[in-house]
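Researcher: We're teaching a course module on how sequence relates to structure. For the next exercise, students receive a sequence and then see the predicted structure as tokens, so they can try to spot secondary structure elements on their own. Here is the exercise chain.
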Amino acid sequence: MVKITDVARHAGVSPSTVSYALSGKRPISEETRQRVEAAARELGYRPHAGARALASSRSNVLALVIPLRAGIHVPVVMQFAVSVVTTARKHDHDVLLLTQEEGEEGLRRVADTALVDALIVMDVQLREPRLPLLRSLERPSVLIGFPADSEGLTCIDLDFKAAGEACVEHLARFGHRVVALVGSPPEVYVRQTAFAQRVVQGFTAAADRSGLSSSVHPCEASPAAARLVAEQLLREHPALTGVVVHNEPILEPLIEAFEQLGLRVPGDLSVTAICPDELAESVRVPVTSVALPSAEVGERAVELLMKKLGGSAVPEATLLPPRLTERASTMPRSA
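Model: And here is the predicted structure for the students to work with:
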């Protein structure tokens, strides 16, 4: 293992100069600092995590809070997690993943120790019970998601309300007059999970503006549930010609269910979705969709947190605009 004395010998300086150059604790000439950094890179030197934490009063660890509750689609959540982890590594930070139902007590337990420097919180609810604690913590935090009251917080996410609107507006431009939203599992709405609620708000608002007949249908994440919802929609809304899907696991099973019931996609029924691009492209009939920018959201959440740790001001709200890509699953409504 390369030691600080090895770097000092290679750079022709004292070990204390290496320490000061790498930590920034004392002013060092630019020429010396560059020589020390070059020696550290050449030798592959990395400060010991414990010593670095003692020197800086930081752990160089971020907490990523993702409670794996019922109704959460784990593969998509892990896309966010991977983005957070890879971006944190670029900033020489590791990530502590917390997957339990961490309420105020759990967050305080983590925040009151030296385990982490800051927190990223996911699966945010509209009326989020953890907000008073997050506002009071000395450690900075970033929320991936927007509660109803986000004042004094740093939040980032896809603009899910605008995403719901974009899907409906696309169907309205194609002449569809009766549309339905097949949404997340019921328990997601019971918790008032913010992103799911925003999609419903956008879907309903856009349908009302365009004078469309619309309905919202939560759906469990299983092929059997998708079949039941398809049957219900055709029974209750025989004039249905447009569907928005916000439930990744049932996207393909739902299309298959409609086709088994005699509706061709897109000949009889146009389908749009809010989901990752790779999922929309992999369905037998590629689906017109609003992309779920998990990589960008995770990366920018970490960048916001790094700025806050460095004492820089950051915007309270960062809403990423929706990007709709038209594919083979939508077409103008036939007369």
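Model: If you want an answer key for the exercise: The CA atoms of residues 248 and 275 lie 6 Å apart. The chain has a mean pLDDT of 90.
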